[in-house]
Fold each of these.
Amino acid sequence: MNHALRPVPKPKKFTPPVLANVDPLPTGPVAIGLFTGLSVEVCDPAAMAHLSLDGGFGQGTSSRSFPKVIARTGRNVGRVRRNPSGVFHRRQVERRREWAGKFGSVEGSGGTVWVMEEDEEKLVEVGAVSVEELKRNALKVEEDPFLIRENLSLSLEEAMFLVRELNVLKVQSFDGSVLTEKNLVEKFAAIKRDFIPSYAAFLYLKSRNWIIRSGLKFGGDFLLYQKGPQFFHASYIVLIQTYQSGKILTTCGRNLENYDFQCFNRIAETTAKDLLILEVHYPEGLDPADPHECLRRLNEFRVGEVFPKHHNYVATRTG
């Protein structure tokens, strides 16, 4: 699959200038990530900007794509004065002060918010004034008493790629100990049964310069972007099917039935995307239940592409 052989993807209407300066892959300082049991989170703002802009890795823990601080400031995170992050009602600010007294506040956070008093809130409710007008003319700007930080959440495949292939990430557990590659593959395979074929597919797609994001919201395994989600809409919804000795392995992957094709094709067509199925083939004699040996022999895996856009599910129905 080559970018030049596929239709040009639909560009975004606007790309924020702070997100336009990108590189294909991250290089430089090694970032620190925390394994949460479900994903790996990067907390340092500079590292978040580095990984999210160079290669399009991760997404914000409370955002649809880039962490909000990166979307506002790009690589200048931590070096420019931030605008207030949002509009809070007075009661919300007071509640956060209670949290700060109970749990402690973040020192040197510098976070600020617009504060809406009760009388201003009533004016908005009756339509006498808009929130944007209040922000320009009336709302006070106060320090956020209990700043809730947003981190960069990396998928398991992204974390392994950054650790194993690029050596730009170290993953720690909650006790501060650094997890080795052996520790990581054990933990990742334990919480995601198809981690090995999924990682093999991830490497295959990365070797073809795709920006890879989670396909969960469309029911798939991955979404593929050219250059990045700030530039184009996704080109493909990717589904992974696992084989060994010519037979589908349902123990570590999905088994696509004929009617599944109809469902996924409809989702892809209504969202202006194409459907791509990656067939990941285990080497002969390799035990899929042994993640260490699978990772060691990863270069022996074979990956094939299937484009089922015109699949006739009725003609191939068997029952």
Amino acid sequence: MGKGIFAEEKEVMCYVACIMKMANAIKNNKLNYEAAIKQADLLLPDEIKEPAKEAITACKKARTDQEIRRWFLQLAVECSKEHPVTKEELQMLKDHKIPDDKNVKCLMACVFRKVDWLDSNGMFKVDSAYKLSEEEYPDDKTKLDNAKNLYSLCEKGRVICELYVGQIK
């Protein structure tokens, strides 16, 4: 641990979590960013303050899978006002199946535009999509590989909403 490398062992993770909870750096299983930075400034030796604060900031940026899903769902809800879809169609999207419906494709295009995954011509930007995955999962090769496979399907088909792009600009 002295080099900033944490073993993914239950005992080590529990120990670190316990310390962070006692320092109020974690509250309700979420990072309390301001408290963590304050504790780093108050308690850590000068030579490790900055690296510790960089690590805390990296943790602040990280989102859980559930938070990412919630974010995409929020975007889909916003987009569904213009492009209504059924609950069944939303479930299909959640299962990575694309219903053959104009509103579904336009809803996807709307969401993808909001996250900068479509270019001005309505074509899927695989590099932009993968960049987001690299930011969210920098150390999880399995998730990155899964994302790359999923995005390659989007890139091959480029079916997101290219037929309807004029209606969603």
